[in-house]
Each structure stands twice: as C-alpha cells, then as structure tokens.
Design brief:
By secondary structure, the chain is of the alpha/beta class. The longest helix is centred in the middle third of the chain and has 29 residues, at 462-490. The two termini are 37 Å apart. 51% of the residues are buried.
C-alpha cells in the first residue's frame, strides 16, 4: 500500500475524467462544453433525452460511430458542431441532462457498511453498459451492466471490475446459407468514454500479476456508469510479451490457455488494482466463476501482511459472495492439471497450499485426481453465500453442486437464488416511458420494485395501450425493412429476396421476436421442426405473423451455427421471406429495437437448462407478451393470465421433448395467440390482448426490475444494511 496522501489521490480518479472532458471541450465550440461533460458519464444513456441529444448533433455519424459520444464529438464536422452549438433548445436540453447527472452524483451514498473506501466490488468477465463499449457477449454482460446502473440509481457504494478487450467480442456476418462468419474490429480506448487511471505524478497506475511464471503488467481504465466506476484491466503494454498482451485482446478467446489466463488476471488483478487505489472491498461479488481466484488473492494479501493462513482464508470467504449463471457444461469449463500449472504458477504456494490442495478446491470430488479443475466449485467453496439467478435455477444448482456438500441433503445445500431483473430506464422505450409517466405518478420509476406502483396500469385506457403498441411495432417494422434489405443485398441474395424484404413486414401484423445466444439448448431449431406448418401460420392472410430473429453462436460452436442455418430454409417456402428476418450482428442496439417492437417474445429452452433469461423481462416493460417454456424466470412469472407457458418438465429423450414442446408451441400460436391478437372490437382494438398486456405489466414489472434484484442482493447477500434499514426500504 502506498502512503496515505497517495491513497487519497488515487481513490478519486475522477480527476482524470475531468481532464478528458476539458480536452474534448477544447476541440468544440464553447457552448458544446456541456455536451463534452455529459459524454464521459454513461448516465446520459438512461436519462430521458440523452440519446436524442447526441443524435441531434449528426444523426448519421451517431449511428456509424456505434452511438459513441466521444467519437461523435471528435469526428463530427465543424458545420454540424456549430449548428448544434447555435441551437438554443438543444443547449437547454444538454444543460438539463447535465443537471440530472450532477444532482445524481451529489446524493449521499446509501447508508450501511459499504463506503467509497470499502465498496462492493462487482467482478465480471463482461459488462454490457452501452453498445459503444463492446466488451460483452450476451446475457451475463447485460445483467452486469444493469446491476451497475441500478447500483448507481440506489446510491450503492459499488465498483465494477472487468477486462478491457482491445478487440471486444466478434462481429457477425451471415452468408447466403445462414452460416455465421466472424470478424473483429479493434477498440481504441482513447476514443470511448474511458480514461487511464494515473498516479500522482501523472504516470499510468500499473500492477503486476503472476501468470505463466512471469509478472504480467496491467494498466487500468475507468468508465463512469452514473455514480459507479467501472475499472477495466488492460494487458496491452509494451512491457509484456506479445503473447501476454493478447490476454486482454478478445472476450471468450478460443484458446483455452488464454481464457484461463484471463480468468486469473481478473481474479488476482482486480484485488491488486483496488488495493493500489486505496480500496478494501467490504464485499466481493463474483458474478460467475471467471473471477473465482479473487478471494484467494485477498487471503494472500492478508498473509503478506502477517496474518496466518486459516484466518486469512476465513476472512476472505466471509467477504465473498458467488452467483452462478448456468447449469450448462460450457459455462463450467474444466481444465486439466498441466493447463492449471502452466497459468497459475506459484499462486497456491503464496496462499500456503500445496498444488494438490489448490486443485481440490476446483473439483466436485476432491479425492479424484483425474477430475478437471473448474472455477465454479472454487467460487462456491470460497464464498460465504452462493445463489442461482431464478427460483428454479436455485433448485437446479443445489442438485448440480450437492457433491460439494456430501453430508447435506439436496434441499439444504447452501445455494439460494436471487432472480434476475432488468434496468427499467435502460430497457423501456421512450414512448412507453412517456405513457407510464402520465399514469403512474411522479418519480414512479424510483419505486419500480413496489407492486403498488404498477397498479395504476389497470386504469390506463385500452386505446392508449394499443396506440403505444401500434406505434412501437410500426417503427420496428421500418427498422427491420431497412436492415433486411441491406443485409440481403450484402449477401448477394436474389433480387426477389431483396424485394420481399422491401415490401414485406406489415406494421399491422402480429410480430414475434426470438433473439438470444445461438447455443443448442436454446432450441432455435424448434421454429423449423414443422416448417410447412410454421410457414402457413406466418402467411395466413387473416391472421398473418412475422418472425424476427437474432443471435450469435460462439465461434467454436459449430452445432449452434448450424441451428441458425435451419431458419434460412424459410427462403424456399412460399411468401415466407416477406415474414421472416434474421438481424445480423445482435447487440444492445438491436436488442432495444426488438424488445420494444415485438408483440410476442418467444423462448424455447430445453428445461431445466435456462438459468434465468432476461430478454423476455425487457419485452414486458414495453407491453410485449411472453410465450415461453416454464423454465428460468418465466417459471415464477407466469400466472396463466399474463402470457403463455409451455410445460417445463424435462423428458429423458430430448427428441421426444422437442416434438412435444414444438407441438405445444405451434398449437398456442394458432389457437390462442393469433386469435386473441386479431379479435378486435368495434373500435378496432383487441381488448382481450390489451388486458393481458396490462396484467403482464402489473405482475412482472415490479418483480423483475433491477431495483428489486439489487435490493435483494443488498439485504440478503451483501448484508449492507441493518434489519431496521432493510425493513424500511
């Protein structure tokens, strides 16, 4: 640890953000200095009017820059900047947004045992804060981003720690057969809202992490997410070998040894960076097993200060909680002894363990020398509390990891659950927010976890709800047409396919969304098990439907890639190309369009492999309905009146389960969903459908908000508040 004065300076690395804001402002017309200050805090992204502010500077460049406010302001023409600076209304809007950000930052922190010097440290391999910072792959990152935003809204003293991937996650291009191709574009951290954390003398703060028998040097970037700083470790330094610099190149790198090195860097490096900045976490939250070495590093640091091993390990365990996100094998990757020895080096010895004892922490059966080392058992063993991410996933996790507790019956295994939720201001479309602002009362969004907040939805006139849904669907259809024409042309598809995209996709048709990782257990192929029947449903003149899909398969997942190819067989069926679109390169921007524009959100996982799922929760926030297998979050959300459910019991033979679930899916679409959507009153409104939308908002809005989720973590896992404080929330 450095001296007290240095610690104080490093603790408040916001000074680097101020310098970056001033540097950016110096390149802009004077009135635009306000916009430069806004650009370096992602709080603008969930403040009403924030996106519109930057789009007004140069809408085309805003989209081409991936909605990156720093790049926009650096690359916009002088004409665009001067025009924006002269727009008094726009500058008043900017001043209002900045006032929101500054007032938010000025609020006192949530009372409790966490503080700026002793924060909750939230560790994750990926963070989906915004589309302009592409260091995320899917649901895990989206969940992590939502937790940081909600922690900011609740004024929780939290810091996020992850890795800065210089090439991010891959970009996707589908060829004419539907086969996925991947490519990467380098991320320039100096052209995103990020700043290097620096020492008092202006040099970058660095720490070293022992990996592969060498000391890897890492620097740290700070990204401001409202009140919460996100620190990203970066190994791309000249002091490191070319191979070691690649460790932070790509998220979920295909090379196993590099992935393991990433996890070691995240776990060990996160604790060293926070220590160097003068922070001692009150709680370390391991969001999945990637960072599971963090509590061992905490123990090592205590031992280096003179503590004995057993006390240090117990203290580290007491400060750590662990969240597991998947029962799928690929999410609980195993490594053999040689792989672990190559990456970990002397770490076990530094925490007073021989190598075999260390390996046993990562095995379900410690006595089996042939069992691979897995981060998840290590994370569970080194935590005082562990949880799944839905009620059913908690049950599955207790069964899955019961061998770690051989003396306990399954129902007493100490793994609970905190069901996921989504950040309401991020995922609710502006038009939906405007409608609810009119009907739910002032500042209703700060009370999103209270069911009473949503009770007034029942009295919203059906006509207003239907008008909202029609508006969102029509806007989405225009978006789908534009993208579909462009991607079909880029794939050199026949002219008739391009024309089908241009004339298809009606703003009045039932619009169905299916978008998620293209992992096999997500069962995208269920949509084509009966292609003729599906095509007939889509093209029924009186009750037509349109199906909009998106998703990525991991570059090494050939089976997942093939599942997407099945969808492209719809091209061969009569009129289907006018009703089916696959949106390449699924990301946060596409997701926001999908969850706002689709009337029906479909999820067809093979139960019980869906830990939670959150995309359907986002659809709920915009008046979408869910038709899903009763697995993950939907198993506790569905009440028979707020959507549709497919039985979630598992069947020994997967092919039997697939056929049964597909039949249920098609039957629901044909006999319940479409009739309800198209059953219109004399006023042209499907009142039965609207009533189900209202019921969905009222029941699922509060229960699956990130507000409820983070409050559960605060009170039940982090234990930050006293019982009286928790009871008064």
């Amino acid at each position: 640890m450095t001296d007290t004065a240095a610690v104080t300076a490093l603790l408040d690395s916001r000074a680097e953000i101020v310098r970056a804001q001033d540097e950016l402002a110096s390149r802009l017309p004077a009135p635009m200095a306000i916009v430069a200050r806004i650009a370096y805090n992602y709080r603008w992204s969930w403040t009403p009017g924030g996106n519109e502010l930057f789009a007004a500077v140069d809408e085309l460049r805003w989209e081409r820059s991936n909605r990156n406010p720093v790049r926009l302001l650096l690359e916009a023409t002088s004409v665009s900047l001067e025009r924006a600076a002269a727009d008094e209304r726009l500058m008043r809007q900017a001043a209002a947004i900045l006032a929101v950000i500054e007032a938010d930052n000025a609020r006192p922190a949530m009372p409790g045992r966490a503080s700026a010097r002793q924060p909750v440290a939230f560790l994750c391999a990926e963070f989906a804060v915004h589309t302009s910072l592409p260091i995320y792959a899917g649901g895990l990152g989206v969940l992590a981003g939502d937790i940081l935003k909600e922690a900011s809204d609740l004024a929780v003293p939290m810091v996020g720690v992850g890795l800065l991937y210089r090439q991010g996650y891959f970009l996707q291009r589908m060829d004419r057969t539907g086969y996925q191709h991947e490519y990467w574009i380098p991320l320039d951290p100096e052209r995103v809202p990020a700043v290097l954390v620096r020492n008092n003398d202006g040099t970058p703060l660095t720490v070293t992490v022992p990996l592969r028998g060498r000391e890897l040097m890492v620097q740290v970037w700070r990204v401001q997410v409202g009140r919460v700083p996100l620190f990203l470790l970066d190994a791309d330094l000249r002091e490191n070998s070319r191979t070691d610099r690649w460790i932070t190149a790509r998220l979920y790198e295909s090379d196993r040894s590099i992935r393991l090195a990433q996890y070691a860097l995240l776990g060990i490096g996160s604790m060293r960076v926070l220590d160097a900045m003068g922070m001692t976490p009150s709680v370390v939250h391991l969001n999945e097993g990637h960072a599971a070495l963090a509590p061992l590093e905490l123990a090592r640091m205590d031992m280096a200060g003179g503590g004995d091993r057993d006390t240090a390990l117990a203290a580290a365990r007491e400060r750590t909680i662990f969240t597991t996100h998947t029962p799928v094998g690929a999410g609980n990757e195993g490594y053999d002894i040689a792989e672990v020895a190559d990456v970990m080096g002397d770490l076990p010895a530094e925490v007073g363990m021989d190598f075999d004892s260390f390996l046993q922490l990562g095995r379900t059966r410690p006595e089996d020398p042939h069992e691979p080392f897995v981060m998840t058992p290590l994370g569970i063993r080194m935590s005082r509390a562990a949880n799944g991410v839905s009620r059913r996933h908690g049950e599955v996790a207790r069964q899955m990891w019961q061998p770690l507790f051989p003396d306990r019956p399954v129902d007493t295994v100490p793994i609970g659950h905190v069901t996921n939720g989504v950040h309401v201001p991020t995922w609710m479309a502006p038009a939906t927010r405007e409608l609810l602002d009119r009907h739910l009362g002032d500042e209703w969004i700060t009370r999103a976890s209270d069911p009473q907040t949503w009770a007034a939805v029942a009295s919203i006139p059906d006509a207003e709800v239907w008008e909202l849904r029609s508006q969102l669907r029509a806007g989405f259809v225009e978006y789908v047409r534009d993208r579909s024409v462009a991607t079909r042309l880029a794939r050199s598809e026949p002219r008739e396919m391009v024309a089908a995209a241009e004339r298809g996709f009606s703003p009045d048709s039932l619009t169905i969304g299916f978008a998620r990782r293209l992992a096999t257990y997500k069962r995208l192929y269920m949509l084509t098990l009966e292609p003729e029947r599906m095509a007939n449903l889509l093209t029924d003149g009186a009750r037509s439907m349109q199906l909009i899909l998106a998703g990525k398969a991991h570059p090494d997942d050939e089976e997942g890639k093939r599942s997407a190819q099945g969808l492209f067989t719809f091209k061969q069926l009569h009129n289907a190309p006018e009703h089916v679109a696959f949106l390449d390169n699924y990301d946060l921007t596409i997701a926001s369009h999908l969850v706002a524009g689709c009337d029906l959100w479909v999820n067809l996982p093979r139960a019980p492999l869906e830990a939670s799922g959150t995309s359907g929760m986002k659809s709920v926030l915009n008046g979408g309905l869910n038709l899903s297998v009763l697995d993950g979050w939907w198993a506790e959300a569905f009440d028979g009146t707020n959507g549709w459910g497919i039985p979630g019991d598992s069947v020994y033979d997967p092919s039997v389960q697939d056929r049964r679930d597909a039949a249920a899916f098609y039957d629901l679409l044909e006999h319940e969903v479409a009739p309800l959507f198209y059953d219109r009153g004399e006023d042209g409104i499907p009142h039965g459908w609207v009533q189900r939308v209202k019921r969905s908002l009222m029941t699922n809005g509060p229960l699956f908000s990130a507000t409820r989720m983070v409050e559960d973590y605060i009170d039940d896992a982090y234990l930050l508040r006293s019982l009286s404080q928790a009871g008064a929330r």
